[in-house]
Amino acid sequence: MDKELQNLYVVARRAREDFNSRLAAQYYDRILQKQPMSWEAYFYATYFSLCSFTILEIPRTAQTMRKCLGNTFVLIRDHVEDEAEQNAAVCEAASSCQALASMLDGGAVLYYQHLDPGKQQRFQDVFQMSRIEVAYFLRDLGDLVNCVFEECMDLKGHALEAWWTVVKRMDHLGQMIGYSKEARELISSMEQRMQSTRAAMPAFPYPAGTP
Questions:
Q1: pLDDT digits over 16-40, tens only?
Q2: What is the mean pLDDT of the chain?
Q3: Residues 13, 114: Cα–Cα separation, whole Å
Q4: How far apart are CA 170 and CA 208, in angstroms?
Q5: Sign of CA dihedral 50, 54, 60, 66
Q6: Count of Cβ atoms closer than 10 Å to residue 174 Cβ
Q7: What is the pLDDT of residues 90-117, one digit of tens each?
């Protein structure tokens, strides 16, 4: 790695640690131009470009991250050779996705709760769509970890955590405004995934409360 690229990583990581989304996105994009197979640059250039969002942009933000995830995990699998480093990269990306999903979902809930009842009624379809799109984002996170790194038992916890988060948030959505068909189907499909994993790996330390 040349000196300029090393310096770009230093600055990009510092901006990431400071959660300076504008600078992080800018410097990771510059790294990506020089090192297109870098999972870190690819993932965080997209991630930080999406961290400043409005309420109406929540569905699009979740959809964009869903598209980013598949390529990110393939880059990790194909271009990070050391198994320990590969596992660490997956853990980092998964944790970052969970953090962004919490920001998106929490932002939608907070906005909705502060509306008066009349405005809540008018905003309800957007509110529901926003939370469901974030749920699909987490579903895909779990599915990709489970499929792309199928042989790595150490990473199963990230898949289970993502699926279980979908169940809890769709249940919360149902309690707030009623259970839509889509929300019920998401809950059912996530529970089936968790039950199948439990049947195949009964000794795995499952998150508390999982089916």
A1: 999 999 999 999 999 999 999 999 9
A2: 93
A3: 35
A4: 17
A5: positive
A6: 15
A7: 999 999 999 999 999 999 999 999 999 9
CB atoms under 10 Å from CB of 64, counted, come to 16
Residue-wise DSSP of 71-91: HHHHHHHHH--SHHHHHHHHH
Phi then psi dihedrals of residue 18, to 5 deg: -80, -5
> Rounded CA gap, 101 and 163, in Å?
13
d(C-alpha 109, C-alpha 76), whole Å: 33
**Structure-token pair, residue 57:** 């942009």
151: left (phi over 0), alpha (psi -120 to 50) or beta: alpha
Of 11, 37, 136, give the one whose Cα is nearest residue 89.
37
Question: 152 in helix, strand or coil?
Answer: coil
Structure tokens at 27: 């410097």
Residue type, 136: Y
The answer to whether 79 and 37 have CB atoms below 8 angstroms apart is yes
